[in-house]
Give the backbone structure.
Amino acid sequence: MAFKPTQYQLKDVGTGRTFEDSCWTLSDPQATEPSLIRAVYNNRLFTPDDSQKGLYRYASWLPIVRTLRKSHAPVTYKSKGLAGLLGMENLYITFSGYWPKIGAKMETCTFKETEAFSVCARLPKKHKQVLVVQSAGNTARAFAKVCSDNNIPLVICIPQDNIGDLWFLKPLKPCVKVLATPCGTDYYDAIMLGEKLCRNPRFLAEGGAKNVARRDGMGTTVLSAVEVMKRIPDAYFQAVGSGTGAIAAWENACRLEEDGRFGPNKMRIYACQNVPFTIMYDSWKADSRSLLPLTPEQGRRNAEVILAKVLSNRKPPYSLHGGLYDVLKASGGDMFKATNDEIVYWMLQFFNLEGVDIFPAAATAVAGLAEAVEKGVVGKSEYVMLNITGGGRLNASKHGFTLKESDLILSPELPEEEIIAAVDKLF
């Protein structure tokens, strides 16, 4: 069956102005203040389409013009093991990773696949620009696999210290190139490198949190949960580096409330960070819309220390209209933090109780949930969604894997002309 592009408009969260999408709009061209934009779908009802495979069951709430090969959706189930330990009656785990036993088959073992399959499907099939994605690790792996499987030209910008996250079950096609910043740099440096590259019209910035396709792809985790729970959760837990997934969760909860069949949107957003990289936690606890000061040197040091390195964004979408600050305020949510020792503890507990390994970032969310239950922030009978954003590497590694080395290592301090010329030679 031929796929028909999803019908939608875009809305400026700050002003409420609606306008048409020009294929890759990342912000309102008439905005006077920083603001996210949201997709407003013609279909206001949540209608999964069983004729589509994988993630594209949710195509009516994805801003896409086509579908791609080998997509998979998150899987939600009601917890027994972890729920029993925490004394919770209605804990639902939404798992994104590789766990065939429950039907989860994301080979990159991360919910970043939901972003990649949505973002890349927003591009027309004959699009000629090279997509550029900046990442601390998991996003790079997901986009690399999706673009390799679907022959989409891609440049990944990643810190060289995180290159070990680029493991795959099979080698990538030549359409995917990896551009690394030198050892000792962090995610923000990779962002700066990508921004310089995208000043050349041959390259297209993916857009990060500003890309509605990225957020609505990530928001499918909530759609998966609501299909199983038959209602909007009372509380939602996720570890955050940028907070984009938590923003996406709230946006889909608002759409589900508008649908009218899943109850009111009382879903409190609880976001969790890894100590000492707690720039959003610290800013939130200070009730500051603006991010508290963090020097590049301190940010890099904190990024080196944390176990969940993917949670190390120095410039997250926190302050702008529709960003994480607004989401926490609107939902009545809060933030938690976890030490490396706590993360290791909950990685082990989750494996013993639920039967699958999870990444440090996912264990950060488990630690936040445990603290919330202990302090009575979350009631034991409440319906709670725990977003396990990555896991199952032990299952995936049974098939063997290969590492992708960087094609170039370039300093973000180089002039943009040198960066563009060097990358041009890769294609």
Summary: The first strand starts at residue 8 and ends at 12. The first helix runs from residue 81 to 86. The mean pLDDT is 95. The two ends are 34 Å apart (CA to CA).
